[in-house]
Structure prediction request, 664 residues.
Amino acid sequence: MSIFIDQSTRLVVQGITGRDGSFHAKQMISYGTKVVAGVTPGKGGQLFEGVVPVFNTVAEAVSETQANAAVIYVPAAVAASAIFEAADAGLGLIVCITEGIPVLDMTRVLPFVSERGARLIGPNCPGLISPGKSKVGIIPGNICKPGKIGVVSRSGTLTYEIIHQLSTQGYGQSSCVGIGGDPLIGTNFIHCLSAFQTDTETEAIVMIGEIGGTDEQQAAEFVRHGVTKPVVGFIAGQTAPPGRRMGHAGAIISGSSGTAAEKMAALERAGISVMKRPADVVPLLKERL
Amino acid sequence: MNLHEYQAREILQQHGIPVPPGEVAATPAEVKAIAERMGGKVVIKAQVHAGGRGKAGGVKLAADPADAAQKASQILGMTIKGLTVQKVLVAPAAEIASESYVGIIVDRASQRPVLMVSAAGGIDIEEVAAKTPEKIHRLAIDPRYGLLEHQALTLGFKLYSDAKQARAAAGIMQKLYTVVYAVGASLAEINPLVTTPDGKVQALDAKIVVDDNELDRRPEIAALRDPSAEAPAEVLARESGLTFIKLDGFVGCCVNGAGLAMATMDLVKYYGGEPANFLDIGGSSNPQKVVSALRIITGDPNVKAILFNIFGGITRGDDVANGIVQATQQFPLKVPIVIRLTGTNEREGIAILQKAGFSALGDMDEAVKRAVALV
Prediction:
């Protein structure tokens, strides 16, 4: 098994004729992902790479190809609209790679998506991969290996570093999910931890957090009560300077500064093994497995 | 992007929120002229993107126009948290009957704009929140319906028992919510919201932070940016599409991705060094970005060694390598450089580097250890 995506994932690529969209659509196809459709308004009727039909709208793509997931590579100015469209077309999984969506747009997108029962991953994320089965997004397929470790991360390239450490030392992955670094995201640590806990193939979980906000502390609370599998964690930003202050309101709402030390302590209290550096991931997993 | 207090006040005023009079000045002579027009005591406030202005001596009361000019000459040109004061706001010293707090921030946990109000406003509001959280009233606003009248009025009565004042405060809250979506703010705050001795409710001080992602579609807000109020290296970084924050250490770091950049700084510290900066060259690579990054890093006289940590995904190793080689053709690096390069097009990148006389490592810990040893 794996979480969120596997061989049954039928993907529509929004922005398939764009610079990033076309590059990564090719990468996903060569990895083995079932890319069944592309969408670029005005380019309906074309064939991408001679094989993938392009449609004007997501709804058309879904009714013609039975796509069940979307990945979004369109520019930031139209990305919120692309998420609305994918949710309206009834897709169950929407992965938004685009960086730079205004946070106020997301305050409208998120309730719309959840009312339609869809799962949004991102925005501003590298997407996800279930090694050997399917890849949706931009995580380099060649650094991953099929296996039993679930990886969930707020970061992009730091995730690649950790996956690289795992794969080169013989620890393959069931799924790796980059949830994105924006303040407002569709899928959080808890959703992924809960899915990995249920997934029969996953034996241990690696979670990679960052300074800022309180998502990691809430995830730690969830692990304490709801996760029986071993969890190893990392928090980036131990040496980061105290963040740019967001007026008084930032301090009032979180009640704390969301420092790395605070988050690492919360993880440890929940029984999570905390890495001091990325190279600690395999030694700590060995201790716990 | 931070707005200055005077800019935030203008925006509130444009949206119908009552703001007491105030004018901006850049010289003591201008301040004197404004004080003469205002006729009497004035308050002079530094316009700088740093909290704690008052405690740093950036806010002063002046008894008359001559005193105003003298106080202004003390404030203009002073440095607060590394930033030089270029402008001051001059306002009549108002008598205040009460101070409240009203703020709206986009909250990660509820994923909504949250309105927070307190009758205990003023400079100690954070202490109030920490010690007596029950004095802060919060409401998560549903963006589909906005801030409803009865919701605002309920909070208005938390600030004032007088119905007229409660209604005035409620109106201000609804207008502040309009401001948030009108300018693309991730934070809009009035502190203090005051009552005057004759019972009027007014916004005495305001702070607005605009979401940087909004600026492309709001050129009129982007035009409010004041580069003179920012550190020069950070202006160059922003214009080059880089994220840069200067620190006090000696190892200049250049990394792709914010998470990996932070983890690299942490590893520098782990091996006994001190990072000189946070620098993220971002997702897509082009050699020019790398040249700008090296220009910024080598501009810091504290830097004793340069450390590249690149894990190619979208970023391509050959682009980074070409950037490093081009930079060395344009200006001297002056200090040794350690390069870790792996991922997309690493072979091509390493070949380009070797041809120019550089070497590259594949392991992050190894590279960081070497860079720290060079300092």
